[in-house]
Amino acid sequence: MDEVEVVVAHSERATLRVGDVFLKVDADQARIDVEVEAMVLAPVPTPEVLWRRPPVLALAAVQGTALGRLGEPSTASTAAWGAAGAAVRTLHDAPLPARQGQAGRNREELAAELDAECEWLVTNGVLPADLVTRNRQVAEAAFRPWTPVFTHGDLQITHVFVDGDEVTGIIDWSEAGRGDALFDLAILTLGHEERLGDVVAGYGTGVDLDVIRAWWSLRSLLVVRWLTEHGFDPFAPGCEVDVLRSRM
């Protein structure tokens, strides 16, 4: 009998693996609706939907291995990272979905949330004030006009699977929708700055590196509290706090 592997679990959702099947348990069916619709529309490899019985969505495992993990060196080839960039470009060039996604949040709302998180980090002594202030300044570059594209919205490297030099699948589409293209590229390369050139080479034109770096700071500042409250460690080597320190 196949063992049950807990891929990720926290108070909002959980993903289990049983053999070649992933079971996503989510009490918020709207997120599952978004995920299923996005996988139908996306012109890139996505998991096959096996069945859906709320609150569970069953997906077939995709071939290959994840592009890497945050906090660990990636063993994927330069060509694989370039292929990931090309796949993201294919997604961004696709017709726009109806929904606004995680990468398309209102500028004023996002700035207000960022200010609140920065204040919390400093007031509670989680991070030094100079570190927070410097990264808040860097993050400003992300607040600029942008043209909406079809974004994944949570394009962590663990969500991109490759086999050799080819992308075999992109998973976890619950945050997909209209959004900022450079948000996707920033999340993909977060903590792997040395791979940014490979991704951009595959992606092509229209990439502002200062905005990518701004999103690294912005994203990291926003998630430190959430990660610590949900059992993750943003202080682990190579993870979010190290990303913030690299901007000093």
TrEMBL record:
Entry keyword NAD: no
Give start and end of each Aminoglycoside phosphotransferase domain.
Answer: 44-206
Superkingdom per UniProt = Bacteria
Q: Does the keyword Transferase apply?
A: yes
Q: What is this protein called?
A: Phosphotransferase enzyme family protein
Q: What is the lineage of its organism?
A: Bacteria, Bacillati, Actinomycetota, Actinomycetes, Kitasatosporales
One molecular function GO term is: transferase activity
The UniProt keyword set, sorted, is: Transferase
